[in-house]
Specification:
Layout: E1 3-8, E2 11-16, E3 20-21, H1 26-38, E4 43-47, E5 53-54, H2 56-71, E6 75-79, H3 83-91, E7 99-101, H4 104-112
Parallel strand pairs: 2-4, 3-5, 4-6, 6-7
Antiparallel strand pairs: 1-2
């Protein structure tokens, strides 16, 4: 299992259980986000604390989740960014677009506002 889904009230935490979020598993993550959104979930946190590498496919899945949540008046946040993943997000200037929490609780608090 590459991803776990943990409902926390209105917010669902999706945890990435892989070290590399890339073209091999990003479609599965995207499918999770689409399914969650389809059943009415529009507040999601993606925990990347176990992920040390992310490519453009992974970033695409993240951006899809962000768009799905925003389009349904919800919210999306990232947490647990490892140094290499954080660097990629910053290089792509997505740190200006995405909500990023330093911890899971921080991310949950950011969405609860």
């Amino acid at each position: 299992m590459n991803f776990t889904v943990d409902p926390q009230g209105e917010i669902v935490i999706v945890t990435c259980e892989v070290e590399k979020l890339d073209a091999n598993n990003a479609p599965e993550l995207k499918a999770h986000f689409l399914q969650l959104n389809k059943v009415g979930t529009n507040f999601m946190v993606l925990d990347l604390s176990k992920t040390k590498y992310c490519d453009s496919s992974g970033l695409s899945a993240v951006l899809i989740a962000n768009r799905l949540c925003k389009d349904t008046n919800g919210g999306f946040a990232l947490t647990g960014l490892q140094p290499n993943v954080r660097k990629l997000v910053e290089i792509a200037q997505l740190d200006k677009v995405l909500t990023i929490g330093h911890s899971k609780n921080d991310a949950l608090d950011l969405l609860a506002k």
